[in-house]
Amino acid sequence: MSTPADEHPDALLADYSVDGLPTAQVLLVERHLATCPRCRTRLESLRTTAVLLRSLPEPSLPRSFTLRHAAPRSRRPLALPVSLLSAAAVLLLAFGLSLAVYPPRTTVTASTASRPAAVAAGGTASKAAAAPTAGPASAALAAAQNRDQSSAAASSQAGATSAAASMSQASQQEGSGTSALRRPFAAAAPSSARPPGQASEAPPRVPGPTNEAAQQAPSATAAGPSIHMSPLQLGLGIAGVACLLAGVGSLALARRRSAG
Amino acid sequence: MQQVGSDVDELSVARARRGDLPAFNTLVERYQQTLYAVALRMLADPHAAADVTQESILAAWQHLADFRSGSVRAWLTRIVVNRCYDALRSRQRRPEYSFDALLDAQPQSEALAGQAPDPLQAALAGELGRHLTAGLTQLPPDQRAVVILCDVQGFSYGEAAEVEGSNVGTIKSRLSRGRAKLRDWLSTRPELLPVTVRSLYGRGDDEHAG
């Protein structure tokens, strides 16, 4: 009869109050309840707690949540942001890969550039030196750069094509992904390709311009910001960031439109 | 009664799927009170609860194709509860978020206290209701959700299991633990309880037993 406190089956009581016990334990609990007023009270308080919860007043609605107009179904409102953001992801991935493969800004000659560990080096010089191992992308790039400046648009087109090729290689995306990429890149490429092109045309404007660095490596040793990456890389980076910004912006717009 | 309601619901869902917005809005009108109440008890924040409710209803409209069969109420509530879990998780990542400030915003209408002839109702519309609501926020989210669904909203164990995507055994176990904690929470302020039930919480504690 006089049950010690540690033998009160409080956990079982709670389970009992929600019909959560197997039959054997139900019998055990009920036998205990028959002799223990303390546990009868506790069980009653558990049930009362449930009653109190059930009796809580319903909160009043702040407004009606009915939809005023038929919001577009499924993914349509998010199609633009999603495609922009995935384009940004692929572009930035390609940008990062190109940075890893062709580190921007070289300082020295073929001997350094042949060592991949020289990450501080980079840019056109290392690319020209590494051309045999670098493959068709850098070859196309070098060709595009060596063309005369009146064909700036053409060179950026070539850059776009080789970029699309390398991107599809790198990310193995579906055709739709690549075609979606091509447009923003082609739009961003001319503006980004121009400054380095001008630099190679008029070397004095920028200290240690990229093409000059290929011939006169020591003059390019001054440590500076990594502006001296190839037009292709710059284009990838800028197009990627632009797609990212546009994607985030359109996502915010879509959310606001759907909420309102 | 429940069966008739669910038949009507499925008819509305079928029409809403074909783009019938008024049909969908009849579902919203039928369940928005429940959805908002669940969100409010989960989050203890009227603004966040309203946002979650509205977002969930919009998501339900946009993903009507995902509704298979069964209880429309459970399906809608499931969307709300999942978003509440998300909101609580992101709140956890921002420790500056204060629960105390939120509890003050608890919209327990004082006007109800005057109307209620029942002392229990009066207490629940006032300080006791606030204390009990605060106790809900002390529970881990999974227990809180089940207590809200089963005890506050009166969902069956089966429907709560549908909402939670789990089985009835899990629901009962969470409800059991949550209810026991709330019982102890209430016993910390016995003076708030109506005299008729106060003795259940005040005495019979372990120090008196044995």
Task: Kindly describe this structure.
Chain A has 260 residues and is an all-alpha fold. Chain A has two domains: 5-46, no CATH class; 77-259, no CATH class. Helix content of chain A is 65%, strand content 0%. Chain A has helices spanning 10-17, 23-35, 37-54, 79-101, 110-113, 123-129, 131-134, 136-146, 152-171, 175-201, 210-215, 231-259. In chain A, helix 10 packs across helix 12 (231-259). The longest helix of chain A has 29 residues, at 231-259. Chain A starts with 9 loop residues before the first helix and ends with a helix. Chain B is mostly helical and 210 residues long. Chain B folds into two domains: 1-107, Orthogonal Bundle (Rna Polymerase Sigma Factor, Chain: A), CATH 1.10.1740; 111-210, Orthogonal Bundle (Arc Repressor Mutant, subunit A). Helices cover 74% and strands 0% of the residues of chain B. Chain B contains twelve helices and no strands. In chain B, helix 2 packs antiparallel against helix 3 (46-62). The model of chain B is unreliable at 104-114 and 204-210 (pLDDT under 50). The interface between A and B is large, with 48 and 63 residues.
Distance between the termini of chain B: 49 Å
Helix/strand class of chain A: mainly alpha
The profile of the biggest β sheet of chain B is: none
Query: pLDDT below 50 for ≥5 consecutive residues: which ranges of chain B?
Result: 104-114, 204-210
What's the mean pLDDT score of chain A?
65
Q: Give the domain tally of chain B.
A: 2
Task: Report the span from N to C terminus of chain A.
Answer: 66 Å
Biggest pleated sheet of chain A: none
> What top-tier CATH class of the largest domain in chain B fits best?
Mainly Alpha
Shape of chain A: elongated
- Report Rg of chain A: 34 Å
State the helix count of chain A.
Answer: 12
Strand content of chain B: under 5%
Number of DSSP E strands of chain A: 0
Average pLDDT for all residues of chain B: 86
Order of helices and strands of chain A: HHHHHHHHHHHH
> Ranges of chain A with pLDDT <50 over ≥5 residues?
1-5, 109-222
